[in-house]
Amino acid sequence: MDADIKALEEKITKLVGLCTSLRHENQDLRSQLDLARAGADKLKSNMQLASDKLELLLGSLPLDGEST
Length: 68
Known about the structure:
The chain has one helix spanning about 1-60. By secondary structure, the chain is mainly alpha-helical. The radius of gyration is 29 Å and the shape is rod-shaped.
C-alpha cells in the first residue's frame, strides 16, 4: 500500500512539474505570437505606405501622348 501511495505521489509530482513547464512554455509562445503580430502589422503598414507612394508616383506620370 505504501509503495502504491509513493508511486502515485511521484506521478502527481511529475504531472505538476509538467503542468508548470507547459504553463511557462505557453507564456513564452504568447509573447512570441504578440511579437509576430506586431511585426506583421508593421509590415502591413509599410506595404500600405509603399503602395500609396507608388499610386502618387504613377498619378504624376504623363499619359501616352501627353507632354509635361
